Amino acid sequence: MTAPMEKLRNQGIGLYLHVPFCQTKCSYCDFNTYAGQNDRIPAFIDALAWEVRLWGRMLGRQRVRTVFLGGGTPSLLTPGQLGVVMNAVRETFAVDTDAEVTAEANPEDVTVDRMAGFRELGVNRLSMGAQTLEPGLLKLLGRRHTAEKVPLALKAARTAGFANVNLDLIYGLPRQEPQHWRETLEGVLAWRPEHISAYCLTLEEGTPLTQQVRRQTVPDPDPDLAAEMYEVAEQTLGSAGYRHYEISNWALPEMESRHNLVYWRNEPYLGVGPGAHSCLFGHRFWTVLAPDAYVHRVARWRAEPAFVTPDLSEVTLRHVPTVADVERIDERLAMAETAMLALRLAEGLEAEKFSERFGVHPGDVFGTVFAECAALGLLDVTQARIWLTARGRLLGNEVFQRLLAINAPAAGAAAGGGHVS
Ligand code: SF4
Fold first, then answer.
1. How far apart are alpha carbons 88 and 277 in whole angstroms?
2. Distances from the Cα of 330 to the Cαs of 26, 274, 316, 360, 404, in angstroms?
3. Cis amide bond preceding 83, omega within 30
């Protein structure tokens, strides 16, 4: 085994599996997901299991700490279909016995039988899209579930044995008042999920909701109200015992999302399935988007075993049939991304960890940005740790853009060495 492969084995990776199908398409969604194509799921499952096996061989039965089935709507899969994929994962990767295995779910699909099947396959965390409990807003978002369905789904998940459930929520919606939002939060808190994600709506280009706002058939979301709603979430969830551990995420003690922490700590992950992103060996690469093209590319990879090689250079990655493109992450970008992602977390950027990884104190690289942002009231800065203030959590992009824009000195010049993880 090569030295980078050995290092990766010690560290372990996060494994993301993308299921690009939904029953219907929500009005705000620009994810790589397709409605009305459920007849393509069987061929897709076969391809996904093969892509998992091919990567598993390429990475030499690599250690996996977390698995995340995202989408799309993985809860559309039957336990039989999910089993094909999970068997491939366990056959070709060394999955930790205590690995966190999450599946995203739509409340409409959550029945006791289906979820018991998921549990038997090792899924131990469910992430459900509740979004809002206000019926008019659910309709505006084009969600296929009703507000009443959320507690029923949660009850079914509990009966099936899920002791770790996240509910996804959205705020900052057109026509949403802070009072609506408070009621949604209070409704959700009554069910005591272990984890709550609350994202501010982004109007994505090309989505039906964005077009409605442009045509003024739906009012523009009000950013001041969205900021107020964020503060309502901080107060309401905080006083109910949830720790605000990441800009948009709250958890009961010890129930943080371990998979998402892999991203926020800028640790290695492999993404499998159409449009999935990976970050390994100093490269970011992503898979072709369209499910049909994906199925064909996997078939090509299966027919060309030469592409199963432990040499994971940029040249090799560019030749992997499922890979659409590759970006090299140089030392400077790796430092900026590590700092930016760490600042999303309440724990912030720990100078010692950064120095261990890059051989340089973050203040030596980003000192000017830190000083500027501290003066603007966005950051608190000490020698040991840097973190976002309450104002900084609302205006995080102000900080992140500065970190990415800085012309940082190379670590070699700053500290006489360093390495890319
Ligand atoms: S269920 Fe999720 S992935 Fe599917 S369309 Fe709606 S928001 Fe997008």
1. 19
2. 37, 25, 18, 15, 12
3. no
Q: Using CB atoms within 10 Å of the CB of residue 288, give its burial: 0 to 12 exposed, 13 to 18 middle, 19+ buried.
A: buried
Report whether pLDDT(299) > 90: yes
| Distance, CA of 307 to CA of 55 (rounded, Å) | 10
Question: Residues 67-82: pLDDT tens digits?
Answer: 999 999 999 999 999 9
Neighbours of 187 (CB within 10 A): 16
Residues of the chain above pLDDT 90, percent: 90
Tell me how far apart the alpha carbons of residues 294 and 303 are, in angstroms, rounded to a whole number: 14
Q: Are strands 277-280 and 249-251 parallel, antiparallel or unpaired?
A: unpaired
Q: With a threshold of 0.85, does the pTM exceed it? A: yes
Residue to probe by mutation, ligand 1, list 29, 109, 202, most atoms within 8 Å of CB:
29
Nearest CA to ligand 1 atom 2: 72
Any atom of ligand 1 within 6 Å of the Cβ of 199: no
Ligand 1 pocket check for 191: Cβ under 6 Å: no
* pLDDT at residue 214 greater than cutoff 90: yes
DSSP H or E segment with residue 136: helix 135-140
